[in-house]
């Protein structure tokens, strides 16, 4: 009994430590206070101000750039990572192990090293840094995560399904699209969401590949804003909205996964 209480207490304390900062931001998004921690009464003015794009043009531009980069990078990395995972899965055991190890290196590698490496690569190739280089950089570090998400689904799949589809007259592309893709779709969705989250959250790689053309993402905007001596109050409602959207998406995806398992 005591052991059970201690385990539950530990779990709740851990959850509190993880989510307390987010809850504080959400709570203080409903007040006009310019400084976090100073409650001046319930108000929706920060949300109204956030919706007024004219007043916070640079913040909304940074948000739009972040979302655009994240969706492009996540989509491309999902396609590349899925194809790469299929290729790795069909290798011989020793080669598969070697490729799996190589795929893990970018994940274990520090973000700052990846950012500097990509910066030097773009400079050496004479590529002007901006939106395109940021997208390419995000695709680079998101793809290995997609590979890791898709590979377990391939290992769970019946290896004879593909061959059976070919024996029944399907072309390799038809077998890939109608047999393999449905089997690995949950891994692809998980990889896409993971890539999307990582791309939105990234700062180190972005700051090295964003250039000096005036492009800003949400992470670089917050960094520049913090260096000025404080954070724009409208970042609190924006953070709250992003958190709620991600939470709703996760709930929907988990419910769909549970329904698929029950079927």
Automatic annotation (TrEMBL):
Cellular component, GO annotation: plasma membrane
Top-level taxonomic group: Bacteria
Keywords, in A-Z order: Cell membrane, Membrane, Transmembrane, Transmembrane helix, Transport
TM ranges: 12-30, 67-89, 101-125, 131-151, 192-215, 235-253
Cell compartments where the protein resides: Cell membrane
InterPro entries for this protein: Bact_Polyamine_Transport, MetI-like, MetI-like_sf
Mode of membrane association: Multi-pass membrane protein
PROSITE patterns with a match to the protein in the record: ABC_TM1
Gene3D superfamilies xrefs: MetI-like
GO biological process: transmembrane transport
Domain ABC transmembrane type-1: 63-253
Family: Belongs to the binding-protein-dependent transport system permease family. CysTW subfamily.
Protein name: ABC transporter permease
């Amino acid at each position: 009994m005591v052991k059970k209480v201690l385990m539950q207490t530990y779990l709740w304390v851990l959850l509190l430590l993880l989510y307390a900062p987010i809850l504080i931001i959400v709570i203080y998004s409903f007040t006009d206070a310019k400084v976090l921690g100073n409650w001046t009464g319930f108000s929706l003015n920060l949300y109204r101000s956030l919706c007024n794009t004219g007043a916070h043009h640079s913040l909304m531009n940074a948000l739009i750039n972040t979302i655009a980069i994240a969706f492009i990078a996540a989509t491309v990395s999902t396609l590349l990572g899925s194809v790469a995972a299929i290729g790795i899965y069909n290798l011989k055991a020793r080669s598969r192990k070697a490729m799996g190890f190589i795929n893990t290196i970018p994940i274990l590698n520090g973000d700052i090293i990846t950012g500097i490496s990509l910066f030097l690569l773009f400079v050496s190739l004479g590529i002007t840094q901006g939106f395109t280089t940021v997208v390419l950089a995000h695709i680079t570090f998101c793809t290995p995560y997609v590979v890791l998400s898709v590979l377990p689904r391939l290992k769970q799949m019946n290896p004879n399904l593909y061959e059976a589809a070919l024996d029944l007259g399907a072309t390799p592309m038809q077998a890939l699209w109608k047999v393999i893709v449905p089997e690995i779709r949950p891994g692809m969705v998980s990889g896409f969401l993971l890539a999307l989250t990582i791309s939105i959250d990234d700062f180190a790689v972005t700051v090295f590949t964003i250039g000096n053309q005036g492009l800003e993402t949400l992470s670089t905007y917050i960094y520049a804003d913090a260096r000025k001596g404080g954070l724009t109050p409208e970042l609190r409602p924006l953070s709250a909205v992003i958190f709620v959207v991600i939470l709703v998406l996760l709930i929907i995806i988990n419910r769909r996964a549970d329904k698929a398992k029950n079927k």
